[in-house]
Amino acid sequence: MITVTLKSSKEKSLLRRHPWVYANAIDRVDGEPASGATVIVRAHDGRFLARAAYSAHSQIRARVWSFDEAEPVDHAFFRRRVQRALAHRQKMVQNTGAVRLIFGEADGLPGLVVDYYIADDETQRGQIVCQFMAAGVEAWKEAIVAALTDATGCPNVYERSDVSIREKEGLEQTTGVLAGDEPPATLISTENGVRYHVDVRNGHKTGFYVDQRDNRALVQQFAQGRDVLNCFCYTGGFSLAALKGGAQRVVSIDSSGEALALAQQNVTANGFDAARATWLDADAFKTLRRLYDEGERFDLIVLDPPKFAPSREHVDRAARAYKDINLTGLKLLRPGGLLFTYSCSGAIDAELFQKIVSSAASDARIDARILKRLGAGVDHPLLTAFPEGEYLKGLLLQIA
Ligand code: SAH
């Protein structure tokens, strides 16, 4: 096995169990490992640090599989990792047909995301959807797919590796069936009593924002009798939760006609009164201002925009965009109204996000109180050694 030796004192982060080796920390590579090959990472003095997946093209030159010298990387390794991840989810995740089964580094499988749409009496057919985002998991794809189907008993695995991040790893974007049957046009997944149609082939990410489950449940809990506005609604996740929770009226905005069509299908699938829901195919920034100018007001608003800051360079512009929607969102609330506001930009941390929202409130001259800090569900764990894994953060605010 090829050895990667670090520069002197560059072993510290690995000793703290941070799972990435940057190219500039490497002193020498004894040989020419293929991309995705397993290498041994050693400190400058020769001490064993980790087994890792080599990535010839990325600045993240190696990602750690294991810090245990006695643990080889083979088929059994992937079976153990997948079984462990599944066991944790089975114990902790309830009231849902959709779980994040593997969340990359936090599950010891760097660069791999797997969502599992579980079969039940009604849906009959389960579906696993994967994103392979690093050379190591790409090289072990077959072993991983076998481990997934064995552990879950679900025969259907679909790949959604159509993500630009693969280019940094020298990998092309790809999608398709990895095992079992072609996914249906939409499958049905039930969460907290709400049925959602999910298009795993053409939808965003793996088809559904599994990470917002707990937050949708909160909206459901607080929606009774309220006028709700859901911005960036996609296929209606929060809108359906609000309808289920007894909202009086739900106005939803998204700029994707396809997402809105599925959202409307979801209203029908749940037997909700379509007259309670309004769907606006429009730009959320402009529509928020228009609604404000027209004197519309709401009791509960959800702002769950796409990632405004794809990387650090975009933080300033993203901060202005977050501030813009939060400012108008706060002004659109009636007294006592609730704002659920989110950012899924990894480059904007929870502290900065709170500052942005606070400055929106102060510019709007509104007294806002934080009732709760929000994040992804327990199936999106965050490794303490790997704070980079945090991306979704949110706040539940109430205005005076
Ligand atoms: N809240 C959703 C996920 C939101 S994803 C859920 O829980 O399922 C972000 C959504 O924002 C996408 O559906 C995308 O189509 C939409 N979008 C992006 N830019 C937009 C804009 N300027 N105006 C309105 N919608 C936009």
TrEMBL record:
Record flagged with keyword Cytoplasm: yes
Xref: SMART domains: PUA
Domain PUA: 2-87
Keywords annotated in UniProt: Cytoplasm, Methyltransferase, RNA-binding, rRNA processing, S-adenosyl-L-methionine, Transferase
UniProt GO MF annotations: methyltransferase activity
InterPro entries referenced in this protein's UniProt entry, alphabetically: PUA (IPR002478), PUA-like_sf (IPR015947), PUA_sf (IPR036974), RlmI-like_PUA (IPR041532), SAM-dep_methyl-trfase (IPR019614), SAM-dependent_MTases_sf (IPR029063)
Domain of life: Bacteria
One Pfam family, short name: PUA_3
Enzyme Commission number(s) from the entry: 2.1.1.191
Top-level EC class as recorded in UniProt: transferase
Annotated CDD domains: AdoMet_MTases, PUA_RlmI, RlmI_M_like
GO BP annotation list: methylation
Keyword hit for RNA-binding: yes
Subcellular location: Cytoplasm
Family the entry assigns: Belongs to the methyltransferase superfamily. RlmI family.
Protein name: Ribosomal RNA large subunit methyltransferase I
Organism: Paraburkholderia gardini
Organism placement in taxonomy: Bacteria, Pseudomonadati, Pseudomonadota, Betaproteobacteria, Burkholderiales
